[in-house]
Amino acid sequence: MKCLVTGGAGFIGSNLVDELINQGHDVVVADNLSTGKKENINEKANFVKYDITWDNGIHNIFKGVDVVFHTAALARVQPSIEDPIAYDEVNVGGTLKILKACVDFGVKRFIFSSSSSVYGDVEEKDLPTTEDKDLNPISPYALHKLIGEQYCKLFSEIYGLETACLRYFNVYGNRMSLDGAYKLVIPIFTEQRLNGEPMTINGDGEQKRDFTYVDDVVQANIKCMEYPLELNGDVFNIGHGDNRSVNEIADMIGGERVHKDPVIEPKATLADNSKAKKVLGFKPSMNIEDWIPTWKKNMGL
User: Is 141 noted as a catalytic residue in this protein?
Assistant: First the structure.
């Protein structure tokens, strides 16, 4: 298969590219390198420096492509609150342009990297979250991901493009960003520890997240590509199926901590991944408490 991975120099995208190439697929990486890194790009991939908001040059990356994995985005909740217009241009406008290009160039399947943030702040009694749960995005980033999902469904219905939306739950693993605005809690704590600083925790630290290993996210994408039946805007939770508090993550990293004012964020996330297991054959492989010791050793903690 010929595959295009937007954002293929980023955290999730580059791990996906590596596995696609390992499986013998022809891969094009499109990335503007704003947050992705050139050293992440597999040397066997065809790299095109490309911004998904551009209108020109699309024919250079879509020719002969069978499947598009759309991982490119401006990520994270808090920065989207600070700059919603820039986030909308990339996450909504850019996604729409890639979808339209898929139709124009005869791409068979489009796999969208969505987010558990579309659920909003789910009450504990409603956890774990199923795909049919009411959606209540509480940030521009979350809303943009929901709009992307709706565009996927619409393009399947109107244009016949096969689409699927994978709602990722707090992805961690190799190539997590240690700099910039897109750091997750594990690299934030790691950087602080390496700098001899206390780990900073927003609020009481009892907010819980379903931490999902990046290799499992990659597995879900590839299983979605290989799925033999039609996909018409189908949505799947891609999460491990359990959760840990921020305080527990701090305990695993080890060291002093300080508490800051709370921010706008869900109190807890927890995926019901039974649909992905049943339909795609998704099987989470890694618990975060088993992975963090290796991470700490590699980072010199």
Answer: yes
Whether residue 128 is preceded by a cis peptide bond, meaning omega within 30 degrees of 0, is: yes
Cis amide prior to 228 (ω within 30 degrees): no
* 2 beta partners: 26
Residue 292 CB coordination number (10 Å): 21
Per annotation, catalytic residue among 50, 87, 119, 141: 141
The C-alpha torsion from 245 through 251 and 257 to 258, rounded to 10°, is: 20
Please state the rounded mean pLDDT for residues 87-95: 96
Distances (CA, A) of 68 to 24, 29, 172, 225: 16, 10, 22, 9
Sign of the C-alpha dihedral computed for residues 93, 94, 99 and 102 taken in this order: positive
How confident is the model at residue 180, as a pLDDT?
Answer: 57
Average pLDDT rounded to a whole number, residues 233-249: 97
**Quick one: pLDDT at residue 58?**
80
CB distance 233 to 160 below 8 Å:
no
Check: CB of residue 69 under 8 Å from CB of residue 6: yes
Output the pLDDT for position 64. 96
**CB distance 71 to 6 below 8 Å:** yes
Please check whether residue 285 is in contact with residue 216, taking contact to mean a CB–CB distance below 8 angstroms: yes
